[in-house]
Every structure is written in structure tokens, then in C-alpha cells.
Specification:
The complex is a heterotrimer of chains A (350), B (100) and C (175). Chain B is mainly alpha-helical. Helices cover 78% and strands 0% of the residues of chain B. Chain B has three helices and no strands. Chain C has 175 residues and is mostly helical. The chains are: A mainly alpha (350), B mainly alpha (100), C mainly alpha (175).
């Protein structure tokens, strides 16, 4: 294995990309908090935050400051090491999962670089599996938080979370296999590029959502369950479990859980955009315009808005309904989708 | 570069650790975990040999071993839960009566 | 080179700690660390697919199952007939014998391997992609694959049957 360093512009480009993704995720999470509060208020005929900054835009930063200055409490009977490890695991996996997600086509930054730079932290040829692997590590943060707090509400939240994650991970993984078959690749960049087609020189949409509508629905539903969002937010069901796994957390340890939840949402939306919504391709917009990353961000934003919309529209399921839905409807549906896709590729050469 | 022998030595060490866990521990869950260590030691051997021979067979056997390990964990843990319900204990020495 | 020794040390130390821990929760977590190290070793062996499924299947699914059961039973301490503070060498006969056997096994395996002719470093590897693995799996290994799926089915039925709480008051089948 050689450790020859690439030329300097590439190194600087990668460091810049790393910072862009890191800061972008943090600010996306902050922005999502604002959107969520504003949208919740709108749907409930309230006004929402208005005091801090124009339209209350600085509210998330005020929230973070407030959390920073709060006292960090720990239950006396808690397992100290695991109690502090859990939020770290949650936040780390949330950030790490985004590292292999491309956010735009390779670009030279308007001719600044000699050769095009990939708009992702790491280009892995099994990127889909890597996202999946890191996301499956995130459950440990929640489970450990539940166990280490030594509180019955937290423990129930952690138990529910592990059962829910195991159940929905299957459908989550199976639903995207159809896309992998169609694109014949596991690299997210290649999958996106397989969706950019042009007819008579005009780009049109050959997005996989049109070939895999069922797969997209399953992916989105299981994605909501994986990120513990309403209507599947059982690990923290506040009416039954106070706040579930993070009942005992305060100050910045709580903020890390909060951050992780929103970043996970961004990651799921970004992966869904790459897999199903054609990434940075859009009809009638040729790639040479160089606004691929804007298109990508717009699509991710639309999906994130959908998440918020769902949360404030649908009531929470009952726990046994969640399990029944996952195992008896979602999983068989994803298997049927997979078989149908495989048959389509084999016999009709889609 | 580490050679095939290095990987095999590591695998042997891991296997012995797992075997030691099975022999020495008196907690059903730890015993199951030790079995997982042994299975993983074997997996490492397969991947290392697959690399040395330059074939995909090593990774495919790993795939099968993992499937069997998953089945083993599911059934094993179900048995542990059933046993714990009866005796409120995880010590295998509690269950030597050959009947409930 | 250094990476190999780093991952190897991590795997050995965390595996040792797994069997030395009193608390099963820590055992499970240390085993996950050990699996992470093994996954790193698979990357060094140029088997990225094995590395990733090691994380997804082992660390992401099987270990969550273990953690779930440990939390469900909530029986953190090992209950034994002897005092846990007794030195390992003073414990009942079978345990001593087991420990000796394990050490013997390690010594013998390491001795046999190190007295073998030194293997040369790995040669160049023909590219093994996921496609290659898939094709081999569904052609050469098609029969074992089908048998494994049957095994999974049997395990699933067995686990459900075994873990089901026997309720005598009519309401069966819930959970």
C-alpha cells in the first residue's frame, strides 16, 4: 500500500470538501430546526419563533446557546462511561454516514482547478453499503443511552428502538436493491450518472423513482422509521415515555442527540435523492450549466420538507401496529418489488 | 507487508481466546459471544486464504458463516430467554437436571 | 504493515476483554470493537465486500440482537457457585482445565504456524468485485445457498416458537 500524497490542489480541495460537508450538515440541522418549528406553528395556526432575528431565523442558535449554558446532569445510578459514550456514538455515526454521499457532479470550481474534483468526502465503490453499515451503527447510541441512563423510560425507549431498527432495516435495505440492479453498480456517483439521459440533446429525467415507485415509497417509509421520526417516533414517544432514550440527558449531551436526529434526516434524504430522484440531473438543464449541486440541494430540501410535513400531519402509530406494518406489509412489499425488478431486468432488459 | 502466516497466527489467537471463553465463563450470553469470536477467527482464515489464492471463494464462505452465525444467535438467544424465564439464572450449571 | 498490527492488537485485546468482563453489556460492546478491527483487516486483505457485510450483519444486526436480549433480561452480573473474587487459578476444576486447554490450543497453533515455512507476501490480486462474488454465489455455490436459506427459515420458526411466552389464559400468539 503506497501513501504517496496527491498534488496539493487535490489535498486542499478534499480538506475544503470535508469542512463544507461538516459545516453544511451542522447548519442544515439548525435550519431544519427553524423550518420544523415554523412549519409546525403554521399547521397549528400559530406564528412560531419571531423574536430572535428576522422571522426568528436565529432561534436555533439561541437554542444551542441556551443548551450550552445549562448544567450537565447525570443520574446517580447511571453507568458513567456509557452514559457519555452514547451521544458521541449517535453524533459520530450521523456525520460519518454522509461522508460517501456525493452532493454534485465533479467540478473544476469554474476553472479554478486543473482537473475536476469530486463533490464528496470519499468516493467508495460500495458507497451504498457503507452508508448502510454506518447508519446501522447509529442504533447503538440510542440503545446505550437507554440502558446507561438507568431509568425505566429510557430503557423502554432503547428497547423499542433496537426492535424497530432491526425490523425496518430489512425493508430499508431490500427497497434499494432494485435500484442497484437497474444501475448495475453500488457507487452512488455511478447510480446518479445512470439516471442522466438525454433525448435529442435535451436532458430528460430517467429517474429511478419512475421505474421503482414502490421501492421509493418503501425507502422513504423505512427511512422515517430508521430516523425515529413521527409517525414512527416510538423511541421517544413523549406521551408514553416522557422523552424515551434521552429522558435523562441535558445540556450538550442532549444537543448531540438532537443534532444526530436532524443530520440523519439529511443523510436519508440525500441518499434518496441520489438513488431515486436523479441526484443533480433535471429535465431541460444540461450538466454544462454547472448548477448540479443547486439542483441536488433543492431536491434534498423538498424531501426534508416532506419529512416535516409528515411529522405534523400524521399521528403516531401504536407499537404493535408498527411491528405488524414493518413485518407483514413493508417487508413482503419490498421482496415483491425486488423480484419484479429482477424479472424486468432479466426478461425485458430495462 | 504482513504475510499469510501473520493472519493465520492472529486467527489462531482469536480462536483460542474464544475457546477459552467457552471453557471458563459461566454466563450463557458470554458463552454465545465467545462462540462468535471463534466463528470470526475462522472467517479471518477464509478471507486470508482467499486473498492468498486470489479467488472470491474465501469471501463467499464468509457469507455462509455469517448466515449460520445469525441463525445460531437467533436460536441461541431464544433458548437463553426461555431458560431465564424458568430459572431466573444465566448460569449453565443451573440447567443440568435434564428436565424443567 | 503498521495498520495490520494496529488492527490485530485491537482485535486480540478487545476479544480478551470480552471474556474477562463481568458485565455482558460491556462484553457485547467490546466484541463490536473487535468486529470493527476484523473489518479493517478485511479491507487490508482487499475484501471490501466482506468488510462491509461484517459491519452490517455482525455489528449491525447480530450484536443488536445480543444487546437487546441482555437489556431485556437485565441480568448484568454472572451468578456462580464460587466467589467472584477468587483468583482464577483457585476456581473449580473444570474451569482450570478449560483455561489450560485454551492456552495449550493457542500455544500449539501459534507454534505450528510459526514453524511452517515463511509464506511470501501476497501476490497481485485479480479484481474481485461484488459482481464476481454474486456470480460465483449463484452458480458454483447455488446449492449451499439454497440450503442456507432453508436453515434461516428453520431458525426463524425455532426462535419464534422457543421465545414465545406460554400463556395459559387463552390469549396466545401475542408477541
Amino acid at each position: 500500500m503506497s501513501f504517496l500524497l496527491p498534488p496539493y490542489p487535490v489535498i486542499f480541495g478534499q480538506i475544503a470538501m470535508f469542512l463544507v460537508v461538516l459545516l453544511g450538515l451542522v447548519h442544515a440541522a439548525a435550519g431544519m430546526v427553524w423550518v420544523e418549528r415554523k412549519e409546525a406553528a403554521r399547521m397549528q395556526q400559530r406564528v412560531g419563533p419571531t423574536r430572535v432575528g428576522p422571522f426568528g431565523l436565529l432561534q436555533p442558535f439561541a437554542d444551542v446557546l441556551k443548551l450550552m449554558f445549562k448544567e450537565n446532569l447525570k443520574p446517580g445510578a447511571a453507568d458513567t462511561l456509557l452514559f457519555y459514550l452514547a451521544p458521541l456514538v449517535c453524533a459520530t455515526t450521523a456525520f460519518a454516514a454522509f461522508s460517501v454521499v456525493p452532493i454534485g457532479p465533479a467540478t473544476t470550481l469554474l476553472g479554478l482547478l486543473d482537473e475536476p474534483m469530486k463533490l464528496q468526502v470519499a468516493d467508495v465503490n460500495v458507497a451504498v453499503l457503507v452508508v448502510f453499515a454506518i447508519a446501522s451503527m447509529g442504533v447503538y447510541g440510542i440503545v446505550l443511552a437507554g440502558w446507561a441512563s438507568n431509568s425505566k423510560y429510557s430503557l423502554l425507549g432503547g428497547l423499542r428502538s433496537s426492535a424497530q431498527m432491526i425490523s425496518y432495516e430489512l425493508s430499508y435495505g431490500m427497497s434499494l436493491v432494485g435500484v442497484l440492479i437497474l444501475a448495475n453498480s453500488m457507487s452512488l456517483t455511478e447510480i446518479v450518472d445512470a439516471q442522466g439521459a438525454s433525448l435529442l440533446g435535451i436532458p430528460h429525467a430517467r429517474w429511478y423513482i419512475f421505474l421503482q415507485p414502490l421501492g421509493f415509497l418503501i425507502f422513504l417509509t423505512a427511512g422515517i422509521a430508521e430516523t425515529n421520526r413521527a409517525p414512527f417516533d416510538f423511541p421517544e414517544a413523549e406521551q408514553e415515555l416522557v422523552a424515551g432514550y434521552h429522558t435523562e440527558y441535558s445540556s450538550m449531551t442532549f444537543a448531540l442527540f438532537f443534532l444526530a436526529e436532524y443530520i440523519n434526516m439529511v443523510t436519508v434524504s440525500a441518499v434518496a435523492t441520489d438513488l431515486f430522484l436523479g441526484g443533480w440531473y433535471f429535465p431541460f438543464v444540461p450538466p454544462s450549466w454547472g448548477i448540479g449541486w443547486l439542483i441536488f440541494l433543492a431536491k434534498v430540501g423538498a424531501l426534508l420538507f416532506f419529512y416535516v410535513w409528515i411529522r405534523w400531519t400524521l399521528p403516531r402509530y401504536r407499537y404493535d401496529q408498527l411491528m405488524t406494518f414493518g413485518w407483514k406489509i413493508l417487508l413482503p412489499a419490498s421482496v415483491i418489488n425486488l423480484i419484479a425488478t429482477a424479472a424486468g431486468v432479466l426478461y425485458f432488459g430495462l | 507487508m504482513p504475510s499469510l502466516n501473520d493472519y493465520l497466527v492472529l486467527s489462531a489467537l482469536l480462536f483460542a481466546i474464544g475457546a477459552g471463553g467457552v471453557f471458563m465463563r459461566r454466563n450463557l450470553i458470554t458463552i454465545l459471544l465467545s462462540i462468535e469470536i471463534m466463528l470470526n477467527a475462522v472467517n479471518l482464515t477464509f478471507v486470508a486464504f482467499g486473498r492468498a489464492l486470489g479467488t472470491a471463494d474465501g469471501q463467499i464462505i464468509v457469507f455462509f458463516v455469517m448466515t449460520v452465525a445469525a441463525a445460531e444467535a437467533a436460536v441461541g438467544l431464544a433458548i437463553v430467554i426461555a431458560l431465564f424465564r424458568h430459572r431466573e439464572s444465566l448460569n449453565p450449571d443451573t440447567f443440568k437436571a435434564l428436565k424443567w | 504493515m503498521t495498520l495490520f498490527y494496529l488492527f490485530a492488537a485491537l482485535a486480540v485485546v478487545s476479544s480478551l476483554l470480552v471474556i474477562a468482563q463481568r458485565n455482558p453489556i460491556y462484553s457485547v460492546l467490546l466484541l463490536i470493537a473487535s468486529f470493527g478491527a476484523l473489518s479493517g483487516l478485511y479491507v487490508l486483505l482487499e475484501a471490501p465486500f466482506a468488510a462491509v457485510i461484517q459491519i452490517i450483519v455482525y455489528a449491525g444486526a447480530i450484536m443488536v440482537l445480543f444487546l437487546f436480549v441482555v437489556m431485556l433480561l437485565n441480568a448484568p452480573q454472572e451468578d456462580t457457585e464460587y466467589d467472584v473474587r477468587v483468583h482464577p487459578l483457585m476456581r473449580p476444576g473444570p474451569l482450570k482445565f478449560g483455561a489450560a486447554l485454551a492456552v495449550l490450543l493457542a500455544v500449539e497453533l501459534v507454534w505450528a504456524l510459526s514453524s511452517a515455512p515463511p509464506a511470501s507476501a501476497f501476490g497481485p490480486l485479480p479484481e474481485i468485485t461484488v459482481t464476481t462474488i454474486g456470480r460465483t454465489l449463484f452458480t458454483t455455490y447455488a446449492f449451499p445457498f439454497e440450503v442456507t436459506s432453508l436453515l434461516i427459515l428453520v431458525a426463524m420458526v425455532g426462535a419464534v416458537l422457543m421465545a414465545r411466552r406460554e400463556e395459559h389464559s387463552g390469549e396466545r400468539g401475542k408477541r
